TrEMBL record:
Residues 1-28 are annotated as: Disordered. It comes from Sphaeramia orbicularis. GO terms for cellular component: Cul2-RING ubiquitin ligase complex. Residues 141-178 form the SWIM-type domain. The keyword Coiled coil does not apply. InterPro entries: Znf_SWIM, ZSWIM4-8_C. Transmembrane segments: none annotated. This is SWIM-type domain-containing protein. GO terms for molecular function: zinc ion binding. The gene is LOC115426392. It comes from the Eukaryota. Keywords: Metal-binding, Zinc, Zinc-finger. PROSITE patterns: ZF_SWIM. The keyword Zinc applies.
Length: 1087
């Protein structure tokens, strides 16, 4: 007898141990077990009972026996977040894998903590003990499990678990039954046992049951007894009685137990946390659980997603955001995207029933009609045509009236798609292996030319999601071959019309929606399908609960016949990604949609970077790079692209680095082509009606353009021809000063690496970029301008003395006069620069001469800000210094403020030119005006200094400056301070050091020039007093009295001061007699 191969998931019938070893036979299952197992899997027990009048007890026992699940995969799925058991549970943050319900259940089972296991019909019960720990006592839990047709349909446990998934105790009891079925005492449903009892036995049974559990069941027992004895009671109107152990009825839905209330509560909790505390991760894990259920072809996948969606739609933040006009967070928006994608998978289930699809369609339309339902493109609606391109216009009459596409629109449209097309079925079904190639060609010819690529990829995703990996793989290969064929046709078309398009210089050819960043993620789907299959084929599948295609599955697949010579799944995946990333496509509308394009592109590139390039993949890269360059408007890197085409900088940088070691010329062609001018999309008129293009991600795009340029600069180090080409491209295409400055800095760092000699060519590129930055930012405000100027001088210093001389010669095109003098010239003449350049005396003098010339030119152009710097820079050259001084004098009358003049005057005194300082101080005084109440003005110190300088020079100088002071200063306290200082010492102390003419006498207050100053001071006190009394308040009375005291001191300096002050006080008393309290204080102090 040949060896027997077990059927289905069962390894062998319990109790029948297959023999091992070559040439030895296995014990076959009995026909009873084979039949009973098939009935237990498919038929509800009620149907069995209705079909046969009498079922022998042995047959009933085997049906009941085989009705319990035999696979641990589903139990694992319902007790952990993913099949591998690698994620934490929903209710806790503990990342210890041993705390997962499934693994804890296995531990309890293997530790012998499961006891009293009893199976009565379709009901399993037992006790599971949680052993004591240092933090908790021992806990004994009573567990019961109901099951039907190899599915657990209900669970209860006294542990009080509140979670979406089964607790560890349910897991332990269920696994006990799976692993040790012969140790479980099995009874028929309780109704069968009762049927065999006599009346006395039934009475004894009931009375014993009540006696043992009288506190719990006595009230219920009495109530039931009363109803049974009443002829008109409802209970007597029904034939028979319920039996919880008798299995499912015909009308019962056959599905695994899912706690709907807990699903809703958990989702509601995660949403309320707003993305904090890892709630976004937990929701993504729930979505992964839905996908896992779909892959196991478990009907709870759609049921669970419905519960999740209801909670998402009930999120109160949706209405709030819509009302306030604010956008939802990016992570939350991505959760909605995944929700829409999952519904797309569900409605595309190739084996779902029409009534199921109709039910889902009603549900989706209901959600779609809610005002707060999120739009597909984030926050901006659009009016693109039906995006599946496979549906007739008007197929959704009511939907067409809706102006915006929601996250559910594609799933609604997909409800009209079917799988009945003969060529489509030939592309993914396992039949007719010898005709696969022919079927594929027919499908490409007849089906794919009319089917939207994202829709075809959605079919692939649906097949994968619903546990049809082989069919998904076949269909994915068909799609990729279609993309290749489309590419070839596009290339041929462009070559035929190339002259015409190049002559026009623009094109309207584009894809209104790209495959990268598309809501259905077609390229990502194809890539994942192909690479997963490739990994499975190479490594096999050893994950316990994995549903990825296994090595054995792949060996049985005829898909290899669809691959060309030397091709592999990975090669197909890579080529698919390159085709998608290089597609010429219009930048979508709205911030979120544009960010999604960037994010999806980065995700695909990250996946590509995980693939190691071999010779076969390099050939694919070369092939796709050539297409990108030669395919015109069909390529994002063609000679002519649509004016709103998505830039290719990020993709081109990846291609550049990948191709550089193998084909440098092609790599540079790709990168330079991608460096296109980004200034074009800001002022254009859109080709789409009512569409207002705005590149919200422009800053990101510009930074990627900058990164591409930087990568090329780094690679071109040492190659002057390449560097010149890259520099020209940067100068032509990059207009952002900050990005050009970054490139200049990058080039400088690369050129001056510590482990090698400076690359002078790259240094010159760096300098040239720096000069461009200077020109761009010269007439615009830039907060980094000083940093840029300092850096440029450093860069020029590294290039050499001729570079420094050059920037000084053309300073007016690069710097403001202030920058040129205070930063450029000052740095050039510093000792550190001289040392760094190793200059000899002649070179130092030439450089200093250029710096002085620059300083004088700047002083002429902007004397206010550059004169002092020019004087400082010209100190060692007499002629230049005199020239700078004359520039100051010429500008003093009109172009300079008193502050600037005082500063230069102090500088002159410090340098030993007191007469020049005096001259500038008098010029400054002519611009000054201090009113009576400006006794804290910053210029007061300069006025005091100027008077002190004049006093020190002599009587004549002081006499000349006092009229200027009297004219410019009206503040009494300042004037009195000057007057007091002038009377303390003899004028001309500086002159006295050089002459004996000084008499040493103090100046008289009765004669000029101090008499004039004294009169002005007294007048200032009188005017100030009247001004202060106009608006004085009682809290300022004491301060005012002190002020009068200082005024009296000044009055007393005049020979008739006592009389003047007395008259002044009397006038005050008369004029302000209404201020009685103040005048009383004045009398007390001054009489």
């Amino acid at each position: 007898m040949p060896p027997f191969t077990p059927v289905g998931n069962c390894k062998s019938a319990p109790g029948l141990r297959p023999r091992s070893g070559n040439g030895k036979t296995h014990n076959p299952e009995s026909l009873l077990d084979i039949a009973a197992r098939r009935v237990a899997e498919k038929w509800p027990f009620q149907r069995v009972e209705e079909r046969f009048e009498r079922i022998p007890e042995p047959v009933q026992r085997r049906i009941v026996y085989w009705s319990f699940p035999r696979s641990e995969k589903e139990i694992c799925m319902y007790s952990s977040f993913n099949a591998g058991g690698e994620e934490s549970g929903t209710s806790g943050d503990n990342n210890d894998e041993t705390q997962l319900p499934f693994l804890r259940g296995v531990t309890l089972l293997e530790g012998g903590w499961v006891d009293n296991v009893l199976q009565v019909g379709f009901h399993l019960s037992g006790t599971v003990t949680d052993p004591a720990t240092p933090s908790s006592p021992e806990l004994v839990c009573s567990v019961s499990v109901s099951f039907d047709r190899c599915k657990i349909t209900a669970v209860t446990c006294t542990c009080g678990n509140k979670d979406i998934f089964y607790c560890a105790h349910v897991v332990a009891l269920s696994l006990y039954r799976v692993r040790k079925p012969e140790q479980v005492k099995l009874h028929l449903p309780i109704s069968e046992t009762l049927f065999q009892m006599s009346r006395d036995q039934l009475q004894k049974f009931v009375q014993y049951l009540i006696s043992v559990h009288h506190t719990e069941v006595l009230p219920t027992a009495q109530k039931l007894a009363d109803e049974i004895l009443s002829q008109n009671s409802e209970i007597n109107q029904v034939h028979g009685a319920p039996d919880p152990t008798a299995g499912a009825s015909v009308d019962d839905e056959n599905c695994w137990h899912l706690d709907e209330e807990q699903v809703q509560e958990q989702v509601k909790l995660f949403l309320s946390q707003g993305g904090y505390h890892g709630s976004g991760k937990q929701l993504n894990l729930l979505f992964s659980k839905v996908r896992e259920m779909l892959k196991m072809r478990d009907s709870n996948g759609a049921r669970m997603l419905t519960l999740i969606t209801e909670q998402f739609m009930a999120d109160p933040r949706l209405a709030l955001w819509r009302q306030q006009g604010t956008t939802m967070t990016d992570k939350y928006r991505q959760l909605w995207d995944e929700l829409g994608a999952l519904w797309m998978c569900i409605v595309l289930n190739p084996h779902c029933k029409p009534e199921q699809k109709s039910s889902w369609l009603r549900q989706l339309r209901r959600w779609n009609s809610v005002d707060v339902c999120p739009w597909e493109d984030g926050n901006h609606g659009n009016e693109l045509p039906n995006l599946t391109h496979s549906l007739p216009q008007g197929a959704h009459g009511n939907q067409e009236m809706r102006p915006h596409r929601t996250v559910f629109t594609r799933a609604i449209e997909a409800c009209d798609l079917h799988w009945q097309d003969r060529h489509l079925q030939n592309s993914y079904t396992a039949g007719c292996f010898e005709n696969v190639q022919h079927s594929l060609k027919e499908y490409i010819k007849l089906a794919f030319l009319s089917e939207h690529v994202p829709t075809a990829c959605a079919r692939v995703d649906a097949l994968r999601s619903h546990g049809y990996p082989r069919e998904a793989l076949r269909l994915a290969i068909a799609v990729v071959n279609t993309l290749r064929r489309q590419q070839q046709r596009q290339l041929e078309h462009f070559r035929r019309h190339k002259k015409e398009l190049l002559h026009k210089g623009h094109t309207s050819i584009t894809n209104m929606e790209g495959w990268v960043g598309h809501p259905l993620d077609p390229i990502g789907t194809l890539f994942s399908t192909l690479t997963e299959s490739g990994r499975a084929g190479e490594e096999g599948s050893n994950t316990y609960c994995s549903s990825v295609v296994s090595r054995a599955d792949l060996q049985r697949m005829p898909v290899q016949r669809l691959l060309g010579d030397g091709e592999s799944y990975v090669a197909l995946a890579v080529e698919t990604a390159l085709i998608g990333l290089g597609q010429q496509r219009v930048m979508p509308d709205g911030l979120y949609a544009q960010e999604k394009v960037c994010r999806n592109e980065e995700q695909l590139l990250a996946k590509l970077q995980e693939v190691e390039l071999d010779d076969s993949l390099v050939k694919i890269f070369r092939k796709q790079a050539v297409f990108l360059l030669e395919a015109g408007p069909y390529s994002g890197l063609g000679e002519i692209v649509h004016r709103e085409s998505v830039p290719m900088h990020t993709f081109a940088r990846y291609l550049f680095t990948s191709l550089l070691p193998h084909d440098a010329e092609l790599a540079y062609k790709i990168a330079l082509r991608a460096m296109r001018d980004l200034s074009r999309p800001h002022h254009i008129v859109s080709v789409v009606p009512n569409r207002y293009p705005r590149w919200f991600t422009l800053s990101h795009i510009e930074s990627q353009q900058c990164e591409l340029a930087s990568t090329m600069l780094t690679a071109a180090k040492g190659d002057s021809r390449r560097l010149e080409t890259v520099l020209e491209s940067i100068q032509k295409n990059i207009h952002s000063s900050s990005h050009i400055f970054k490139l200049a800095q990058d080039a400088f760092k690369i050129a001056t690496l510590m482990d090698s000699l400076p690359d002078i060519t790259l240094l010159k590129v760096s300098l040239e970029l720096g000069l461009q930055v200077m020109r761009i930012t010269l007439s615009t405000l830039n907060w980094r301008r000083r940093e840029m100027v300092r850096w440029l001088v450093t860069c020029a210093t590294e290039v050499g003395v001729y570079a420094l001389d050059s920037i000084m010669q053309s300073w007016f095109t690069l710097f403001t006069p202030t920058e040129a003098t205070s930063i450029v010239a000052t740095t050039v003449m510093s000792n550190s620069t001289i040392v760094r350049l190793h200059l000899d005396c002649h070179q130092q003098e030439n450089l200093a001469s250029s710096a002085r010339t620059l300083a004088l030119q700047c002083a002429m152009k902007d004397p206010q800000n550059c004169a002092l710097s020019a004087l400082t820079l010209c100190e060692k050259d007499h002629i230049a210094f005199e020239t700078a001084y004359q520039i100051v004098l010429d500008a003093a009358a009109t172009g300079m403020s008193y502050t600037q003049l005082f500063t230069i005057a102090r500088y002159m005194e410090h340098r030993g030119y007191p007469m020049r300082a005096y001259k500038l101080a008098t010029l400054a005084m002519a611009h000054l005006n201090l009113s009576y109440n400006q006794d804290t003005h910053p210029a007061i110190n300069d006025v005091l200094w100027a008077c002190a300088l004049s006093h020190s020079l002599g009587k004549n100088e002081l006499a000349a400056v006092i009229p200027l002071v009297v004219k410019s200063v009206k503040c009494a306290t300042v004037l009195s301070d000057i007057l007091r200082r002038c009377t303390l010492t003899t004028p001309g102390m500086v002159s006295a050091l050089h002459s004996r003419r000084n008499s040493g006498k103090l100046m008289s207050l009765d004669k000029a020039p101090l008499r004039q100053l004294l009169d002005a001071t007294i007048g200032a006190y009188i005017n100030t007093t009247h001004s202060r009394l106009t608006h004085i308040s009682p809290r300022h009375y004491s301060e005012f009295i002190e002020f009068l005291g200082k005024a009296r001191e000044t009055f007393m300096m005049a020979h008739d001061g006592h009389i003047q002050f007395t008259q002044f006080i009397d006038n005050l008393k008369q004029i302000y007699k209404g201020k009685k309290k103040l005048m009383m204080l004045v009398r007390e102090r001054f009489g």
